## 1
Amino acid sequence: MSFKNSRAERTTITRDTVDLEKGTGNIYESIVILSKRANQINVDLKEELTQKLQEFASTTDNLEEIFENREQIEISRFYERLPKPTAMAIDEYERDQIYLRQIEE
């Protein structure tokens, strides 16, 4: 999934719980679905960021390298500006891009 093209809100907005409840009929089940998806998004973002920052990892740290690494700073700033994983999960949920597989007992 491309997180760069996410249309999720970058700020906190008030949501109507009735709208969140429509997909499942139970607000608590909807919240569980959203939290699990937000965790998945967070893990994906963290793995992607770690891979990009490993390119800049060095075995020897000297003071000049720490202050001169502007690319690493730009990558970090980009990920800081992304919407929060929870906002991305809610956006996906509202656009019906999340599905739930229930294991029958």
Note: Helices lie at 17-21, 27-54, 63-68, 70-81, 85-94.
## 2
Amino acid sequence: MKILKTTLSIFATLLCVAVSAQSEEQMTVDTDTLPDDAIVIRRVPLASGPEIDMDELVVDTIPSSNAGLNIVLYNDNTWRYIRNRDISALDETVFTKNWSNTDLNPYDVDTKDLPISIVIDLVDSLKSYHYPYKGRVTSKYGFRRRRAHQGTDIGLKIGEPIYATFDGRVRVIQQSNRGYGNLIVLRHDNGLETFYAHLSEINVEPNQWVTAGQVIGKGGNSGRSTGPHLHFEMRYHGLSFDAERLIDFQTGMLRRETFLLKRTYFHSSSRFTQDFEVEIQSDEEDKRIAAEAAARKYHTVRSGDTLGRIAINNGTTVRKLCQLNGIKETTILRIGQKIRVR
């Protein structure tokens, strides 16, 4: 077992180096169709991760060099990283606060109570993303027949697999012939929630942990539906926004790794757009967000650590640590907890 662990550790290290060294795929643009002063922005979308077969048997779980990750070995000689749920989430209350297995919106938050903009990390070094379903958008987010349509509809055939978009936990399972029909609501590590409606089959249970790419149900035509399709929603604190800002449902690609969610996006008239000037501004905003994310630094709490000691070792103050982490000076630290220090 010792040799196996060492071999896996070396393999995992080489894999990470290979992935980070891989050059970005070049995107081609027909420059003849553009004006002379056009600025071409190359934004490489993220492909989906592998689909997860839940029939595979776990042979062993091995710690990795990162305390927040474990390596899981399967009976078909494959392996993958999984999160250590006890210490990996930066917000340890994301799966407990405002948690309900029955209420579709347990937050009771008004748009004006949210910040003007919120930075949300969509994927991490594990690239934990998979499209919910890849196909043609039949109805977009926004007003439809004078009523707010809070999601995106993607046409499908009954029985086709529906996938978990990010890692997370099942919050609501609803089986009904009204409204959403058969519905799954997942909450994710980044605080987002995704809705999967009109299903013909549900393959998960309330409070179950799921992984991006795991089949959670099958497409259908249940509830208030005029034909087989997936009604997919993205929400933050119970408020919906246009999921096409993040996902290209035609290709299945994730448009960006880090998302600046603006308060104005929660209005039903705020749709994703490919307007050229908006894309330039978005690209500049993405670069600023990436620079800020790169400047962040975290400390993993060890035995004997105190806020005072962590502050001194990182050239900051206890007050600043409390502001960055939303905690008090009297907060009891847990071993393995991540504290943002910059």
Note: Helices lie at 2-21, 276-295, 307-313, 318-325.
## 3
Amino acid sequence: MTFSLASDETDWQNRTRILLSEAAVTLLARARIYVFGIGAVGGYAVEGLARAGVGALRLIDFDVFKDSNRNRQLLALRSTMGRSKAEVTAERVLDINPAATVEPVRAFAHDDTLDDLLAGTPDLVIDAVDSLNPKVAIIARAAEKGIPVLSALGAATRRDAGAITYGKLFAASGCPLGRLVRKRLRRRGIVDGDLWCVYSREERDVEAVREPEADPGDEGRLYNSGRARRVLGSVSTITGMFGLRLAHEAILRLTAAAREGDDA
């Protein structure tokens, strides 16, 4: 299902236009981005992209909103409990920018589904999933297809906003999730590429900020053979910063040609 609405609004992007230029606004309107994972990080990433006027978004998430999401997920409201994250987010994007084309996809990303999920010609992929195997599969398949990827590494358990940074995935340091992702990518023959990430250099004591009992969750029961995962502590401000930084870097990348024109 694809949502698209016409709009007669002409001035809501005026401040973006003043800062970035008319050419940049045009580039953003022509851009097509696929976002995997519309949770604590992905929800804020989509918010930033929508308000910047990105013209086409494919929003991919298998899950529905649950009460435990409300401490950190932008669109987790009492009114959205039990609803598809992808569809709720698509509605919000269109409420921000009725001229956008938004495709909500309720699907789980893994090796068997990624050819369909990545079909088309996206300008880039944003990976905001928090499960290791799907994350590696998304990055690997996008890299094989030559699609740039902006990925979120571990945001849970972090408190230090100043430790959040952005850089090449294979050069990121201080993030245990990043090490695991790189190790598994190398097994697939991927050792570099147009792969970037938001990550934290903060040292943390995981045992001090996770529940002692495991919670299988919907995703664990369905796709990890019942393997339970222990819940990690997290807060909306840090996950939100991760998501907005992903959106910011995507915007800068998409409008680079306009900035080069200004400098010429």
Note: The radius of gyration is 18 Å.
